[in-house]
Amino acid sequence: MAQSPFVFHPRMLITGPFQACPQCGQSELGTLSISDNVHTRQCRNCSHTEEERLPPLAKKLVYLDQMVLSGIAKELDPVWRQKTRQRDEFWLEAFDRIDRLVKLQLIVCLSGDNQDENVATIKVRTGRGRDASGTGMMVGSSVGGKG
């Protein structure tokens, strides 16, 4: 059985939510792209394009020391929790607050580690709905090891 060829059309890049286009009136005006400071919308019917400037980002850089990272990682690790049978709600609350601020794109978290110049993400999955992977919580040192 022969496969049909893949056909790419730029309108495939335009995503919802869709609204009425001011040029053609069709409900086909959707998001084409979002960059640092511009939201570009385009009509899938007539290619009318609009750009909206976005407010500047106001992120704060927060350095987390090893004690914070260890405390959070231990509380989120179900194996550690099962072994110790202790709970430290402080670290869970700290994670929840940090996680919320990262998801709101208000902070970027780094930790100073003079031995490792690489940046890695915390990847901890738990059964309680807390998931540190993909949150943007970063572990690493400042550029050049200066802190």
Brief descriptors of the model:
147 residues, alpha+beta, 3 helices, 22% helix, disordered C terminus
Radius of gyration: 22 Å
- Kindly state the number of beta strands: 8
Share of helix, binned: 10-25%
Strand line-up in the sheet with most strands: 1-2-3-4
C-alpha termini separation: 61 Å
Overall pLDDT score: 76
Architecture overview:
With 147 residues, the protein is α+β, with helices and mostly antiparallel strands. The chain contains 3 helices and 8 strands. The chain has helices spanning 66-76, 78-84, 89-103, and strands at residues 15-19, 29-34, 38-43, 49-53, 60-63, 107-110, 120-121, 138-139. The strands form 3 sheets. The chain has a 4-stranded antiparallel β-sheet, with no helix packed on it. A hairpin with a 3-residue loop joins strand 2 and strand 3. Helix 1 (66-76) crosses helix 3 (89-103).
Give the arrangement of secondary structure elements:
Blueprint: E1 15-19, E2 29-34, E3 38-43, E4 49-53, E5 60-63, H1 66-76, H2 78-84, H3 89-103, E6 107-110, E7 120-121, E8 138-139
Helix pairs in contact: 1-3
